[in-house]
Amino acid sequence: MTDLTLEQALEAAHPPVLCAVLAHVTGDADAWLQPRWRPVYNPLDRNDIGITPEDQADLRARAAVALQPFVDARHVPPPPSPEITRRIMSHVAGADIPDAYVEFLLDEMALEGTSSRDPRWEPAQRQAARRMKVLVIGAGMSGLLAGIRLKQAGVPFEIVDKNPDVGGTWLENTYPGCRVDSSNHMYSYSFEPHVWPQYFSTQPVLLDYFRGVADRHGLRPHIRLNTTVLEAAWDEARALWRVRLRTPDGAEETVEANAVITAVGQLNRPRLPDIPGRDSFAGVAFHSAEWRHDVDLTGKRVAVIGTGASAFQFVPEIAPAVGQLTVFQRTPPWAFPAPHYHDDIEAPKNWLMQHLPAYAKWWRFYLFWSATDGFIPAVTAEPGWSGPPTAVGQANAEFRELLAISLAAQAQDRPDLLPHVIPEYPVGGKRALLDNGVWIAALKRDNVRLVTESITEITPEGLVTADGGRHAADVIIYGTGFHASRFLMPMRIRGRGGVDLHEQWAGDARAYLGMTVPGFPNLFMLYGPNTNIVVNGSIIFFSECSVRYVVGCLQLLAETGASALEVRGDVHDAFNARVDAANALMAWGAPQSKSWYKNETGRVSQNWPFPLVDYWRATLKPDPADFRLTEPAQAVAAE
Description:
This protein has helices at 6-10, 15-26, 29-32, 53-67, 82-93, 99-109, 123-129, 141-153, 169-172, 203-216, 309-318, 347-355, 359-370, 394-410, 438-443, 501-505, 539-560, 569-583, 612-618; strands at residues 134-137, 157-160, 223-224, 228-235, 240-246, 252-257, 259-262, 284-287, 301-305, 324-328, 335-337, 433-435, 448-451, 455-458, 462-465, 470-472, 475-478, 492-494, 523-525, 562-567, 627-632. By secondary structure, the chain is an alpha/beta fold. Helix 7 packs across helix 17 (539-560) and helix 8 packs parallel to helix 17. The radius of gyration is 26 Å and the shape is globular.
């Protein structure tokens, strides 16, 4: 990679991003934001940018001359004025970026090396912070992030995790084909860029990334592994949390903390379907999140129940090796075309990321815009929509048609499969996946059968379906998801007056900004209720915004000397009313959409229904008026 020349690397440059870099580092926006280089994207193939080969060649040739002085420059030139920055952003996006997004997107890119997410505490606040102790539950992506920011702010903390190492979901999920389905240049911390081997890297690569983050930021001494939280109870008299742990040797221990941050995720408690006879199966059965690597599937009769995100990844991987694979599908998934889903990142592209100032930043912007709020209109319900229930509005119907054409093209030679690979629910009604053709190709194999009849029973020999069919199996793999709506289970959380959080929620988890609940002072949730995203972006963005807000709440405690911060009930309720009203107007909130996004009450308890910019703005800094602040704190001595 280091032997490449600038000219060679530029052959792999994304032309709109290249224009952005040129306008930024040279300061000459007029020269590089020419209409002939402005993209017109194909919605089904983002690599089709609508710029002629001749114009692309001319751009690269000019760029080779203009950028030579900037190769390996130590400092990126400062960003241009907001007006010029907006012009650059609009050029890359191929559409006008609203003024309201400019500050938000600049913060996300951190072109000057800092962002609003970096803790900025005054000396007196740092002095007060040293008298605090924070317990973080979970050492996955969000928990490590919380540890980094707490350390930067000077707040003593400890992280506990039930697993033998850090990494969370990337430690636990090891099934064949497991990989991220957000582009890695977005699915990474904004402050921790990485040379990724693939556009969508695999589980071992992601696990190494998070392990490396823990090491580079010196978090290991703060982490206790193989340690399970049994209960957290608020001690009103002392204004602190008492947290009961099960230690690695099986003993119980109680620790105290001024604040507790839960970072346990939503998709970490496997869910098995309630099918009669499930436990009678005589063969091997396991959930995809608890993959049995000791089970050799070669030549076996394998039954897969479920066609969600995990099955979409592991079925194509195991299909060539098994003897017979029977896939039981309730509803097919929508899949967005992603031809490069399994591709390596070419050496020239990584060279540009490493050696060309601002290229990685503007590439991240391109991905961020193209894969985030730009999709919102296509999954928003149209009031008074009188069209078919397969869509929620005209834009949604048009998006559906594009995706249906893409899926149908892959099954043209299999008319028996065609009706079963195009969903009947609206696009956005369930989690959409990324598709480079391997899923339908696997279903078309001679040793693979797709069964759409419902399963009525599991017997020692296999599965029985509603049409009376009997499907023999040696191995059953459950790709049936997680108990996503059971937030913070199985921990017991007791707040003011001993109120049990799960009893208060009664199966319908709610929180203000997904983080705080009335009656539970100094308790903060990361990836809490209504902070999941469907089509617009990476969950790391939400975690970075949430951690900024939580650290801001701790800063407010340090500033005021208060012992407890508790969201007001009316603020919490008004926020949730707005969320519910907005979710009802999204594809995933439509009555015909059935998914894990909805809890047992039928409410969408998972998803954020607004643009990302709204969450960014809402979490910039806590408003003291939203909270009850109570008497001076009793410090918990840091060890």
